[in-house]
Amino acid sequence: MVPLCIPEISGNEVDYVKECIESGWVSSTGGEYLNKFEEEFSRFTGIKYSNAVINGTAALHLALAALNVGEGDEVIVPSLTFISTVNVIKYVGAKVIFVDVNLENYTIDTKEIEKAVSERTKAIIPVHLYGNLADMDKIMEIAHKNNLYVIEDATEALGSKKRRGMAGGFGHIGCYSFNGNKLMTTGAGGMICTNDEKINERIDYLKNQTKTVLENGSIVHNEIGFNYRMPNILAAFGLAQLEQLDKFILRKKEITTLYKKELSGILGLGFPKSKCDEDICQWLNCIEISEEYGVNRDELIKHMNNEKVICRPFFYPLHKMEAFSGEKVMSGELINTELCSARGINLPSSVGITDEEIVRVCSILKNSVKNSQH
Ligand SMILES: Cc1ncc(COP(=O)(O)O)c(C=O)c1O
Q1: Distance (Å, rounded) from C-alpha 210 to C-alpha 204?
Q2: Does residue 182 carry a catalytic annotation?
Q3: The domain defined by 245-373 carries CATH number 3.90.1150.10
């Protein structure tokens, strides 16, 4: 079987976790791995402050809480994303404003953001979908003009860069996920990063139950906070993964190059486009199947899975789900979102996939199109 995306655990993970267990400092207080992991993550991304948390959803939730986004505020977000991006807006009681994506790389359409901004807008959450970068230059321009916060959902885009900037480092806050299927993993985990000292202080305070220690050692909590800290034992795992991150990114890029080479020139089969100043690390490789391809997208995925090649359709539009049926949809419908969602396929993308496996995936795709176009 060729899996969709499984972790690569081949460095110091076992040694560091063992060392952590032997030290007894497995939780979030004490122990050295947590600080080290956060420091090294900041060194990698170039973002000043990093806070390790229990998952990417917690990172996004904390981001909104730290920026005081709440009832009466509107948050602009794409509908083509994982449910967490939008759940967190509901967690803080703000209003979801769904906008469309572009057809080039499936990220939020900046023209649609401009239309969606109102007096109540407080934040935008662009999602760097599957590693493809949202247009952060334009998004930050709109944000500055309208005094809005930008929280980057970079959970899928660790390693993607624009000029010298890393995904997650362009907005006020960047959020990452270390779920088992992501570029690097801690089993479950996440990171919330910012260059702003004041925002960081607030994140740090909220993630740790707003814990304040008095002179006599009593612990008090002056606000409602969250228990979102990552435990030291996961940070030990994460540090070992971080040591291999450059290697992981390099391999991810080779995988994309090989997919593009093998699948070039097939009628009706497209790839996401990137700009010349972008250096993309595709977390999951993407293809789009249009009518000219001649095979139904869902049938194709079924066929691939029967051949033991695990593929997945793109995210289903959130505004079409019952949980979000009452939310505002800009322009009444999101045509590009529905088109991308209906056409897109994620291909197997594990760091450990072999070139032979990629060639096999592509030959199944080529054969299915040969059969249909003859
Ligand atoms: C776009 C997006 N946002 C948020 C998340 C949430 O991350 P986690 O699963 O670590 O909570 C994920 C991934 O799982 C994701 O793909």
Answers
A1: 8
A2: yes
A3: yes
Cα-to-centroid distance, 181 and ligand 1 (Å): 10
Report which secondary-structure segment, H or E, holds 286.
strand 285-289
Range(s) within the chain of domains with CATH label 3.90.1150.10: 245-373
Residue that is written with structure tokens 């509107």 in the block: 74
Closest CA to 194 of 135, 152, 140, 143: 152
pLDDT, block means (10 residues), the chain with 374 residues:
97 98 92 96 98 98 98 98 98 98 98 97 98 98 98 98 95 98 98 98 97 96 97 98 98 98 95 97 97 94 97 98 94 96 98 98 90 61
**CATH code reported for the domain at 13-242:** 3.40.640.10
Residue whose entry in the numeric block shows the structure tokens 């993970």: 13
First-to-final CA distance of the chain? 29
Q: How far is the CA of 155 from the centre of ligand 1 (A)?
A: 6
Pocket probe mutation, ligand 1, options 4, 81, 84, max atoms within 8 Å of Cβ = 84
The beta strands (E) that lie in 119-218 are given as 121-124, 149-153, 161-162, 165-166, 173-177, 190-194, 211-213
